[in-house]
Known about the structure:
alpha/beta; about 20% strand
Amino acid sequence: MALIDARPFPLSFEPATTALIVIDMQRDFIEPGGFGAALGNDVRPLQAIVPTVRRLLDGCRAAGLAVIHTRECHEPDLSDCPPAKRDRGTPALRIGDHGPMGRVLVAGEPGAEIVAELTPRPGETVIDKPGKGAFYATGLAEILAVLGARTLVFAGVTTEVCVQTTMREANDRGFDCLLAEDATESYFPAFKAATLEMIRAQGAIVGWTATTDQILAALDA
Ligand code: C5J
């Protein structure tokens, strides 16, 4: 067993039964001209974590952990996009509209791709998901069962939306969940801070948090 110096208390884990899940590090959320920007957000804080996510990814790859990437996107006919999701608010671009990176949040379009620095490697799993949580309407539960995973390390964006939703889904399914504090980001700093607090409150009620350095140190040990 290995031990991560995590909060609110150390997390013991077995690397062989641990997977890294990188949530939605897609151009549509991270680059100007995508969905995140169309919703009025400054994407620069999300761009800033890309090197840290890469460091975590490479460390987990080197340690032999299973790696899973997710992408929030929809079928080209939007049959898996509830009108309540597409029609909400007044974004500059709606899901399915044509933007500078192709159709917004549509599978196969440039904007739905993972940013170049974090491109999945052969053998890594990529899950396209229509919702915020990566377990909803996907094969993630079955994939994790085949892997024999018990502990999940999370990175990606955005902290309080798709990352937190997926962590909560995973926690309810019996996984030990750890969020890499500096490898996740929100468009809203206060939301990120609150999410980290609420995850580890009440004796890790949703899970643990630790820095990328702390996670990599445990994998190296
Ligand atoms: C959002 C996500 N924020 N990946 N998606 O709409 O968090």
